## 1
Amino acid sequence: MKALRRSFLVFLVLVGGLPPVSGWTQVDITVTRTVIQRIPVAVVGLAPFHLESGGADLAAQASSILMDDLEFSMIFEVLPPSFLPFEAREVQLGTEEEVLPPLNKLKVQAMVAAELTMRGNDLILEGRVYNVARGTFLGGKRYFGDVKALRTMVHRLADEVVLRLTGERGIAATRIAYASKTKRATELYLMDYDGRNSVLVTGNRSINLSPRFSPDGRLLAYTSYRDGNPDLYLLNLETGRRDKVSALPGLNISPAWSPDGRWLALSLSKDGGTNLYLMRRMGKGLRRLTNGIGISVSASFSANGRQIAFTSDRGGSPQIYVIDIEGTNLHRLSFKGGYNASPKWSPRGDKIAFISDRGGGGFQIYLMSPDGSGVQQMTTLGSNEDPAWSPDGRHLVFMSTRGGKKDIYLMHADGSGQRRLTRNGFINFAPDWSP
Amino acid sequence: MVREARELHRKGVIASMVSWRGPLLGLVLLLPVALLLSGCPKKPEVQTAAPAAVAPEPAEEVVVVVEEEVVIETEEGPVTIQDVFFDYDKSVIRPDAREALDEDLRVLNENSGLRVVIEGHCDERGTNEYNLALGERRAKAVRTYLMAGGVDSDRISTISYGEERPFCLGHGETAWQCNRRGHFVVVE
């Protein structure tokens, strides 16, 4: 009876009473999340750790980042440390198995024990993952890095926890590319998926748009007015090398990668109208997919690479269409509303995210099945555009005006957990999520 | 007839609107463009992580216009080439645009050495990528009109800026109309 009451209490705490997590601002929760599907996990260890020079408690920061990552994953429900029957941060590596039985009593299914130490100039973060019910050690990792790399080390550990417990790749170490507009230019930036560590990747003081990560994450395709015309570039994120891969007269815009990374779909206006083309990734072997004087832009490949969804005004207003990569079987997917655009096929292939004005007063983000049925509205506040999927298909990044100007936001793929990522005072839009 | 444009030569215009329903020219202040373009300290292109306060929704729309008329010195004095304006999601040349373009045609035909770039622009509504294509179509529509009026195709080039370089900063029909345009830049 006591155990039952206690697990009921766990349920209450998990549903209603999670404390606000530092570093995040919960902006809007449109759908109550279902606790049942999540794995209850406890984070223990990470005793206070300060540099010799003083400063903040880095282990507390690590703990907070780790819990944010695990909570955001949609896979775990992190137990608030205050609810544990022992002092979580006093658990030392080597003795962590002692707390498995009390965690098991609380129906916690997984445990992460971690520790932050220092060797020379390197921080060392060690993490160990346990299946609580079976009392088994599933594996662990040690990360070495500069103090500045603490966040990255913790994100990597969070992904390790996801991998050990689910076999899936986590998204805590992923990044988001986006465009940021100042008075003088529109430049592209990369930031961690939690909005931290923004770095400039263009810096040519012209207009840079539509960043798109290649499926292996090494290349970033984008359009730039660097040389006066909107041309298409590939930036190698490892070497910094930039190649101009399409510079035909007129537009060279809205790139999309095929899932195997061998092809780029793009829109060109060289033949009158703005049509969809396929080219090999280094700019060779151009093949035209659509015809006519209309507009065809914003291509997105299906998960199996056989089809492309895109925006076209061939029917009189911007609507979403799908075409086979052979250029056959063109058909319209959206019929409601005067402006439907920016289709993005989910990584699992089961949904297409898009924007629509069907509700009136700006744009909202919706999901639909690839046959156009089962439309669900995901946003309600402000005007929302530019949806892009996380590589695991559990989240979406998008642009919203709800905070007064255009900024980048995240949400879970059920519409819950909407939160703002950019706070730099500029106009931020066109996000893309790295693999 | 050549349009007098000395007054408009290199002028910055700030239109401060009490309400977006009000007339555009109701409260126009004229300032030297230098005042607007100079005095901006060079900012490093690095983003700060510091959180910025969210600007409250303005109670009234403020439309800021930084505009420079194209003035061409000819033997008969300076002349201008007028911009043309479009309807939402349209690239059809409207009657008022036709009037402006007919005057532009006269200027171009009387000054055969002039070469122009037509920039296609859009308002902020709709997606950035779609608007690039829409701006392209607007610029090409203007080019086609001028070519039909006898201007050599090699004197007119086009480029689209979509919604990326607005002329009017604001979020209402006044600013939107101001930004849906074909803008002329004289290259020689």
Note: The first helix of chain B runs from residue 33 to 37.
## 2
Amino acid sequence: MIPDSNYVHAEIVVSTEWVASHVNDPSIRIIESNEDILLYDTGHVPGAVHIDWRRDLQDQLVRDYIQPGDFAALCSRYGITPETTCVFYGDKSNWWSCYALWVFRLFGHTNVKIMNGGRDLWISQGRPLTREVPKFSPSNYPVPPKRLDKEIRAFFEDALKQSQQHLPLVDVRSPGEFSGEVTHMPDYPQEGVLRGGHIPGAHGVPWKRAVNEDATFKSAAELRAIYQEDLGLKPDDDVIAYCRIGERSSHTWFVLTYLLGFKNVRNYDGSWTEWGNRVGAPIERV
Amino acid sequence: MSYPKKLADIITLMQGLPEIERREMLVAYADQAKKYEPREGEIFDLEDIRKDEECTDSVGVFLKVDEAGGCHFRIKLGPQVQTLTRAMTSILCKGLSGLTLEELQAVPQDFVPKIVGAELVRIRSHTVYYLLTRMKTAAAVWKKRQSRE
């Protein structure tokens, strides 16, 4: 855990030092999840397994997540049980590790943590990487009774209702995407969106405001200033966060839920690639 | 159409590998990408270094055309460029080395999934296609300049 962080759920964010001292802890499974699909293969935290957000967490045919049975099989393959503490880290300031953590929460896995600063901080501190892929005895993870789609996930209809009822929507994309000036984030290819802009009434708060230069999360006081003082959100608000495909908004979902203790935050994973292509979806431009 | 011999050899090799070994081979190619950076003292016929809006980092393409009209490339990648693109850098510098301008322009892009495997080619890994386009563009610009002189 990060000392003196004052995060509401401080136990869920762990330091690189903490991870380094737990690489051989059998009750812990360290999980790397990246945007760069071969990055894990080039070297990873000793003992870490790889979860590919696309191959392992998403249905390969329908745009949706895997089913509870698939999740149980994935966890069993890595020797994970419901009691295992899964510590996620990755590239891109932990976008994809927050995304993977969110999917684990979708299936009700509660023992989750994020390594603050992610892969970049681990490397910048000169900590070791290995190409050795660890092997764990398979476990028998029970099939979760359901996916928590209603609790922490939002769909198009939910986001539309949120907009119509003037409830909080947080658009975490870059300012250019929010304004409708561009339909892709800086430094990234176009991912097939026909219209630019944002969901009417959404607040534009780029995910990046929540992190420091070294990819660690900002302090609780700084985060409160952004989301509560500037934006006026309250911990009991029903909030929906979105971006373009749901990974950057997973990061903001994590920040609001665990670092600031918001109780009702949902991630709209369909995000702008659904909204901006949907026939008749209302759009606002600044 | 048929691929240039060196590239065809790489395609054949990669297509014959099981998924795990293909990934290992791609990482090995990625490790070699630095070998294809420009070396001190080298002089090029064309240098095109830029960071396009939709790319994670800068890509520098350095072209040398030999007396027989063969193209030879060196490529310098910014530190944020993804592993797959690093792998493709080595593959393209090796596989396309010595092609004439016309042969280079005729190389189709459809070999990419054959080398990389369809599973690894995703929207956010499209720089692997972008690299070939940049190499072809550099060659086309050089040719245009030559025709003016």
Note: The domain at 10-147 of chain A is CATH 3.40.250.10 (Oxidized Rhodanese; domain 1).
